[in-house]
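I am going through a labmate's work and have reached the protein record below. What it holds is a sequence and that sequence's fold in token form. Please read both lines and tell me whether the tokens look consistent with the sequence. Do not assume that whoever made the record got everything right. Thanks in advance; the entry in question is below.
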Amino acid sequence: MFAVLHIADFALLAVLRIEPAASTPTCRAAALFIGRGKQSVVGAVNTAARHAGVEPGMTSPQAVARCPTLRIRTPSPAAQTEANALLFAVAFSLSPTIEDTGPGICTIDLRGVDIRKIESGARTAITTLAHQSLPATAGLARTPLLGLYAARAATSFLQVTDEATFLQPLPLATAEPTAELAGILANWGLHTLGDLLRLPRDEIIRRFGAAGLALWQRACGGEPRPLRPVIPSLNFSATMEFEEPLETLEPLLFILRRFLDRLALELT
């Protein structure tokens, strides 16, 4: 069994959580912009921005027109590094074997873990991350890919027990078809994983070759695989450079508290 911790809009939330206002990260609309000036585009939004009509891909003038009070943020590698370290520390509370699968995605190998404690452990992990202004979801499934699908579909925690029933209604985009394949399958009237999986597997492979086989395997949720484990550091430290000087003590104390919370988790 594998568990996946997933933090949506990770790059934006990583930036917001190091601001003193992060205790209520979704109360004010915020968006992460990629690029510079008027040519920059929205890369991620929080819930409040989404409700205000701001969507990824919009230009900065379009986004501000939709939401004049929008908080504009840019990516911060230092903030993402710190948020990743926190995510790993929480994941290590579930198992000694975890993988850095992608930004805001951590896959956990649950072999040897008491099955009776997995759900409570995953829910505790979600609560811990939420208290650190990183709202996360968790998925539990037979394969890492199914666990990721479950985490993305979950409102909090979701365990996949009936794979066919779970996969059937998921959008076809879940399996990440190429643009060419997506267009062809849409013309065929296929919109969900269930639609695809009802077709003969051999026919998909005959028509689309290796790309079709890979898509079919992803649509089925993949297979168990060895993880690329994160090696826990023997050094416990936290650093961050500020683009602008700090003029008051409050933001410094806030970030030091974030550091201490994360270091305490790592030591635990």
